Amino acid sequence: MFAYIVRRLAQAGVVMAAVAFISFLLFQYVGDPIVYLLGQDATPEQVRRLRAELGLDQPFFVQFWHFLAHAIQGEFGVSLRQGVQVSGLIAERLPATLELVFVAGLLSLLVGVPMGVYAALRRGSFTSQVFMTISLLGVSLPTFLIGILLILVFAVTLGWLPSFGRGEVVQWGWWSSGLITAKGWRHVILPAVTLAIFQLTLIMRLVRAEMLEVLRTDYIKFARARGLSNRVVHFGHALKNTLVPVMTITGLQLGGLIAFAIITETVFQWPGMGLLFIQAVTFADIPVMAAYLCLTALIFVIINLIVDLLYFAVDPRLRVDKAGGH
């Protein structure tokens, strides 16, 4: 187990180094930050002085080493657009994104798993066919279109829910949350549903497919032959073994929620990291873009590591294979 963790940590370190290198290349090939800081009318002397102050006159690998050393400490320089520390901007926007992803992920699991189980156990029923049709729409429709349709129906036509912003939030130091206020919950519903629909339908289809596969196995037939009730067979044996691969995919999809949050936050003007990244791209704010890429990669790596460890702990076959040297 210890050797497995060390190996996974080493792989995670390689991935983060590669992402840091790609992020650093943004500084080299996505515009000149000196132009954005001084403007087109800057004199050659001003350009030379500022380039020396920022260390941009040093060799490529020296610059990358300084960038990597600061990135490890969570420092990515100053935003070219807002003139403040990037770490401060990330700390300000991170709670909103994590809050949105948490609600969307929880909604995906609480709705997707029961729908998948029902679609597997009642696969010939009308309701099951409706679920499968909804899942096709959820997978096929782009996220921004789903968000616009929800705004049109629930915000514009019915007027039930707000269409933008985060609502009232409560501040605890650098962390803020809208989940403990009524207005905060009303604001999070539409973006969370928009973000959750694709993941929800994916989980539903995965649970259905895995459940049907498990129900055809020999040990399920043996359980029925022993006279166990359908409830015990379905939920005590089949569902438990169905959730092992589902747990892996669901954990990986949590990282995908952060990626999809860029579109959702833009549609609903949700003040999270995704909206910050879009604004950074618009204004070529390279330090913010680099910080976002590194932080997103770090979250992916951490989630993948946790999922691998959980899978290792849940599935005894992996422990037997490792012990046997396979």
From TrEMBL:
Q: Would the keyword Lipid biosynthesis be found if you checked this record's keyword annotation?
A: no
Q: Report how it sits in the membrane.
A: Multi-pass membrane protein
Q: Start and end of every ABC transmembrane type-1 domain?
A: 94-311
Compartment(s) = Cell membrane
Where does it mainly reside?
A: membrane
CDD domains tied to this protein: TM_PBP2
- Per the UniProt record, which residue ranges are transmembrane? 12-30, 100-121, 133-161, 188-207, 243-270, 290-314
- What InterPro entries does the record point to? BPD_transp_1_N (IPR045621), MetI-like (IPR000515), MetI-like_sf (IPR035906)
On whether Membrane is a keyword of this UniProt record, the answer is yes
Q: Which GO terms describe its biological process?
A: transmembrane transport
Q: Which GO terms describe its cellular component?
A: plasma membrane
At the top level of its lineage, which domain of life is listed?
Bacteria
Kindly state which keywords UniProt assigns to this record, in alphabetical order. Answer: Cell membrane, Membrane, Transmembrane, Transmembrane helix, Transport
Can you tell me which family this protein belongs to?
Answer: Belongs to the binding-protein-dependent transport system permease family.
Name under which the protein is recorded: ABC transporter permease
